[in-house]
């Protein structure tokens, strides 16, 4: 078989993409280096040229996710015509348009599954190191503009970001719901949680209730419609 | 060696206690069933009579922690002479008196270490299923008394409980701090986070700023004084 020579950066990107797919589909522990090199068609020796370990690969994946988030955020922060409240809403709505619902539910389904706790933590921690300072800059601007109240914008930013976990159980319920009634109940429960999360963001930042709006209407229904057939969370939900 | 026959419940409690110590000290993955039975002096067959797997043992440990939390909470909830705000503060202060600082820092040091993400998640999830409904009852009472505002006490309770993670990094920094200056900075940073966490609780529940007080003054300094010699988080902090 003729060996195809690719640029090292291309190889590295291929390995990252394959690892992302396999970690999501099978879980971080279950997906082996052999599985990953099998997908890309690389020897084990070559793999270790790019990444000293599977853990280093995970770290690189997390950094890649953080860099993507940073690029999205820079675009928001670079818009001086936007008020801090407008920037806050743009920040919170990232990736939550109905056009990205399918991508969102697929990501949630893999990342919140019990097999992927380690993956979730690594991603979450790395992305937080990008998100929290960016949100802090928006809060700082809101304080200057007189719309937001905060003693410490970085801590306020972290508190706001922590609230996101209040919908994790609702994602599991949405994925597990069977039948039209159960599904519409799961959608309504999810939306109630998003509304309460928004209110909590308002109150932490000293904004009037109803200011933070971070989900396009119909987003949860669009996620429900785009549910993957495989349901890694179903068993857990049924057992709990 | 004469075989000592113990009551099954006593054996089970011994296994749980040994597993708790070993999981904390070495991490859930690293501590094996062999290690655990070695501490208790039991055969592998006997172990599997009590627990079908190491995972079942972890689940039982989490349930035990939840039951202890439930008992503490019942005492608070059963005090009808306390207002909802007094109950809230009693709830939030559980285990955070200076007399329990040594126990708290030892628990934090093990449970927030990178090796113990799975352990932390299991404990957190199980304890949350006890905590959130109990806190919801306090918020419901506060709503009846007119002191608290909430559209949905259970979701509000979950939002309040999620804020606790805002001090996880501060625990790591406290454990890693070397020298008197670094240590007093770590204590001050930790206390600033606790104060902001308290304000966020107030605001989510519609209470006047400064109402929620969930740490006895001097608690963080007492935790710092009681730091264990072994420092499982140090390396991570230095690398981050």
Automatic annotation (TrEMBL), chains A, B:
Recorded GO terms, molecular function?
DNA-binding transcription factor activity; transcription cis-regulatory region binding
User: Sorted alphabetically, which InterPro entries does this protein's record hold?
Assistant: DNA-bd_HTH_TetR-type_CS, Homeodomain-like_sf, HTH-type_TetR-like_transc_reg, HTH_TetR
Query: What PROSITE patterns does this protein's entry cite?
Result: HTH_TETR_1 (PS01081), HTH_TETR_2 (PS50977)
Segments traversing the membrane: none
Q: Which domain of life is it from?
A: Bacteria
Positions of the DNA-binding region: 32-51
Going by the UniProt record, its keywords in alphabetical order are:
DNA-binding
Q: Where is the HTH tetR-type domain?
A: 9-69
Please give the name of this protein. Answer: AcrR family transcriptional regulator
Naturally occurring in which organism (per UniProt)? Aminobacter carboxidus
* Lineage, opening ranks: Bacteria, Pseudomonadati, Pseudomonadota, Alphaproteobacteria, Hyphomicrobiales
